Each structure stands twice: as structure tokens, then as C-alpha cells.
């Protein structure tokens, strides 16, 4: 039995993972329903998987944030407390993350081994290029997109699926949060 791997990502309607300017991590659209749902999602036992760049971004955000910023929302705190694997050929431990280990090598090989050995589900929040490669290798079981009601055509950064292979998506769950945020969970199949 292999562990389920979920690629979890926040997105603008036009497919960007973040934006410049005065946009925040939630594009300013978060509400209590989204935050409660995310906290419940991260209450489940699972192992986080990050690429080196996303790991560095999270550590930098945590280090420079204030106690009241969204970086310290309860679900983010819970994510940081979870066991994590950081796939990197440049980082060495110990890491600035309570229960993280570095796995060097190709992400496809590392995650294939993790899926075989893990007795808990695997989840990656962000790590776009790594997850595009994992999708192409058939290792992503679920793509969970939290779609925020914004278009960031001028300020969008981090195009989520730019350069990805072609996939057919089977919708396996959907939910509306706070009346205007869509959570869509798909099962991807290489087209």
C-alpha cells in the first residue's frame, strides 16, 4: 500500500500562486470558514514534502513575520509542527523546522520512496516545479487547488502549471468557503 500524495496549492483565477504589490498570501480574501477548514485539514496526521526553495520561503516568512500576521494562522503553525521532508541537493541539516529532514537526490526518486515507506499521507503546499515533475511521473494522487476570487494579470507571480505536462482531471471533491473561495480536489491523469 502506498501513501497518498496531495499537491496542495493556493491560486488566483488566472493560475498564479502569488502576486506582488499589496496582495497578501490569501489575496486578502480569507475568512473564518477557510481558516477553520485549513486548520481541520492540517489536524490530520500527515508528512509535509517541500522543495528547497519553498522551504526557504516558508522559513524566511516565519522569521520576518509578526505574531499577529497571517503567517501565524493556526493551520500554518500546525503545518510547521508536522514531520517534513525537504528535497534538496544544496541544503544540509539540521534545518530551521522542528521535525524536518533533508532528502537529497531527484524529487521523483525521493517521493517514490516516501510513498512506499510512509504510513501516513503525504502533502506538499507549494513547491511548484517539484510538484509539476512529480505529476509528470504519476506520483501525485490529488491536486487540491484553493481558488481565490481574484485575477492577477498584472501582478501575478509563480504560474502554477506553466511548463507542466498535459493532464486530464477527475473532480473528486469541491467546496465553497466563505461564499467565494473554491476548493477543488482532482485526481490527475497524464493525457
Please explain how this structure is put together:
This protein is of the alpha/beta class. The protein has a single domain, classed as Dihydrofolate Reductase, subunit A (3-Layer(aba) Sandwich), CATH 3.40.430.10. It contains five helices and ten strands; from the N terminus they run ββαβααββαβαββββ. It has helices at about 30-40, 50-65, 75-80, 105-115, 130-135; strands at about 5-10, 15-20, 45-50, 85, 100-105, 120-125, 140-145, 155-160, 165-175, 180-190. The protein has an eight-stranded mixed beta sheet. Strand 9 and strand 10 (about 180-190) form a beta hairpin. The longest helix is centred in the first third of the chain and has 13 residues, at about 50-65. It starts with a strand and ends with a strand. About 30% of the residues are buried.
Task: Produce a short descriptive summary.
With 191 residues, the protein is an alpha/beta fold. Helix content is 27%, strand content 31%.
Amino acid at each position: 500500500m502506498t501513501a497518498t500524495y496531495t499537491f496542495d496549492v493556493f491560486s488566483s483565477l488566472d493560475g498564479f500562486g502569488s502576486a506582488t504589490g499589496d496582495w497578501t498570501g490569501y489575496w486578502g480574501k480569507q475568512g473564518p470558514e477557510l481558516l477553520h477548514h485549513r486548520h481541520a485539514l492540517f489536524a490530520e496526521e500527515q508528512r509535509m514534502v517541500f522543495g528547497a526553495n519553498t522551504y526557504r520561503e516558508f522559513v524566511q516568512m516565519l522569521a520576518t513575520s509578526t505574531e499577529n500576521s497571517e503567517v501565524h494562522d493556526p493551520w500554518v503553525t500546525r503545518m510547521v509542527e508536522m514531520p517534513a521532508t525537504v528535497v534538496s541537493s544544496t541544503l544540509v541539516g539540521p534545518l530551521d523546522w522542528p521535525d524536518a529532514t533533508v532528502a537529497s537526490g531527484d524529487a521523483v526518486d525521493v517521493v517514490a520512496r516516501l510513498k512506499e515507506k510512509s504510513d501516513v499521507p503525504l502533502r506538499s503546499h507549494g513547491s511548484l516545479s517539484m510538484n509539476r515533475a512529480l505529476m509528470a511521473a504519476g506520483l501525485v494522487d490529488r491536486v487540491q487547488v484553493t481558488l481565490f476570487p481574484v485575477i492577477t494579470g498584472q501582478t501575478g507571480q509563480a504560474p502554477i502549471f506553466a511548463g507542466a505536462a498535459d493532464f486530464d482531471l477527475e473532480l473528486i471533491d469541491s467546496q465553497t468557503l466563505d461564499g467565494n473561495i473554491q476548493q477543488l480536489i482532482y485526481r490527475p491523469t497524464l493525457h
